[in-house]
Amino acid sequence: MTRAGPEFRWLLPSAVADPELPGDRVRPRRTVRDWVVDICAFLAAALIGMLTADALGRTPGHSDTVLLLDQLVGAAACCAVWLRRRRPVGLAAVLAVVSVVAPVASGGFLVALFSLAVHRPFKPAVLVVGTLAVASSLLQPVVRPDPTTSFLTNAVVGTVLILLVTGWGMLVRSRRQLVLALRERAARAEAEAALRAENAQRLAREAIAREMHDVLAHRLTLLSVHAGALEFRPDAPPAQVARAAGVIRDSAHEALQDLRQIIGVLRSPGEGADDRPQPTLATLDALVAESRAAGMKVALDSRIPDAAGVPAATGRNAYRIAQEALTNARKHAPGAEATVTVTGRPGEGLTVEVRNPAPPGPVPEVPGSGQGLIGLTERATLAGGRLDHGRGPDGGFSVVAWLPWPS
């Protein structure tokens, strides 16, 4: 990848810059732009050479033979300009030496020097050839003196002209480096923006999937428990069948409402997607009552005097953790009594602990994704807390979560 030169390193995060530009290397075929530029360079060299030849023709002391040789050498120098892309350093060095004895070649030499400054870094090529060019401008008045002007005038004019051409070429190169640096920064910014958007979409999908799992798993587990009871107890009393059917109906309705809410988030994010009230720690009693209504043994030990005073985000996370832990206990330890303990105070954090002993009888094979506890751990970590889970020595299972509670 092409990078900007050292003078533009502040534009790029990398500390190393490659001074090479796209036009520094010879292209297999000249483009239309290359032909236009090369023709203009040839015409500029020819114009400078003709002006120099005309000035030499009006200066006394030059024979016709010398002028003819100057013109031939100048024409060859103009034709050599077409080689400036392949051999910029060698061409500029040779024309610097030739222009000492043939001033008409100065046009081709200036064009070659300009091309060298554009397509090569300042060190070492431009510096070496530039020094040789300044030396040739000082030697030319000695080898080909002009009786109408002094040596100092010729030397100063030649040196200033060489410095101007070299500086102009370096300016063009610097501008090209700046354009390339800005293009690279723009391309990198677009790539980073696309990456950020993709990452944001991924995080949103993970959040929605985690919320769907936490919300729907509890409802669907209730449906599974009561449907299984109806399947294995077809001779149950009508009152019990009616109660189980009512729980199934209510759970299906709640699951449908939760699913409709999440789909609304996907369809129109940010437009009334959160119409239903979110659960908090104060609604934990309702969760326990719902689990008891499903036939599960649950003991709640809440040591929070004012559950409504817990921050909404902390209470919602605590509710979801208890909900998922009760769902797992109902699936994997049916018949065992689960204990939900909530403790904490502002400044010390909120602790939610759900424990259940080993199931009293054989446990039916219940399919599961295994992502519930992983999702709880991610939820607690994102909230700034932590979550531990595992089996105890008695074969039971425990889930302990700590969530921050600012004072």
TrEMBL record:
<keyword id="KW-1133">Transmembrane helix</keyword>
<dbReference type="InterPro" id="IPR003594">
    <property type="entry name" value="HATPase_dom"/>
</dbReference>
<keyword id="KW-0472">Membrane</keyword>
<keyword id="KW-0902">Two-component regulatory system</keyword>
<keyword id="KW-0067">ATP-binding</keyword>
<keyword id="KW-0547">Nucleotide-binding</keyword>
<dbReference type="InterPro" id="IPR050482">
    <property type="entry name" value="Sensor_HK_TwoCompSys"/>
</dbReference>
<keyword id="KW-0597">Phosphoprotein</keyword>
<dbReference type="Pfam" id="PF07730">
    <property type="entry name" value="HisKA_3"/>
</dbReference>
<feature type="transmembrane region" description="Helical">
    <location>
        <begin position="151"/>
        <end position="171"/>
    </location>
</feature>
<keyword id="KW-0418">Kinase</keyword>
<keyword id="KW-0808">Transferase</keyword>
<feature type="domain" description="Histidine kinase/HSP90-like ATPase">
    <location>
        <begin position="318"/>
        <end position="405"/>
    </location>
</feature>
<feature type="domain" description="DUF7134">
    <location>
        <begin position="33"/>
        <end position="176"/>
    </location>
</feature>
<feature type="transmembrane region" description="Helical">
    <location>
        <begin position="65"/>
        <end position="83"/>
    </location>
</feature>
<feature type="domain" description="Signal transduction histidine kinase subgroup 3 dimerisation and phosphoacceptor">
    <location>
        <begin position="205"/>
        <end position="269"/>
    </location>
</feature>
<feature type="transmembrane region" description="Helical">
    <location>
        <begin position="35"/>
        <end position="53"/>
    </location>
</feature>
<dbReference type="InterPro" id="IPR055558">
    <property type="entry name" value="DUF7134"/>
</dbReference>
<dbReference type="Pfam" id="PF23539">
    <property type="entry name" value="DUF7134"/>
</dbReference>
<keyword id="KW-0812">Transmembrane</keyword>
<dbReference type="GO" id="GO:0016301">
    <property type="term" value="F:kinase activity"/>
</dbReference>
<protein>
    <recommendedName>
        <fullName>histidine kinase</fullName>
        <ecNumber>2.7.13.3</ecNumber>
    </recommendedName>
</protein>
<dbReference type="InterPro" id="IPR011712">
    <property type="entry name" value="Sig_transdc_His_kin_sub3_dim/P"/>
</dbReference>
<feature type="transmembrane region" description="Helical">
    <location>
        <begin position="90"/>
        <end position="116"/>
    </location>
</feature>
<feature type="transmembrane region" description="Helical">
    <location>
        <begin position="122"/>
        <end position="139"/>
    </location>
</feature>
<dbReference type="Pfam" id="PF02518">
    <property type="entry name" value="HATPase_c"/>
</dbReference>
<dbReference type="InterPro" id="IPR036890">
    <property type="entry name" value="HATPase_C_sf"/>
</dbReference>
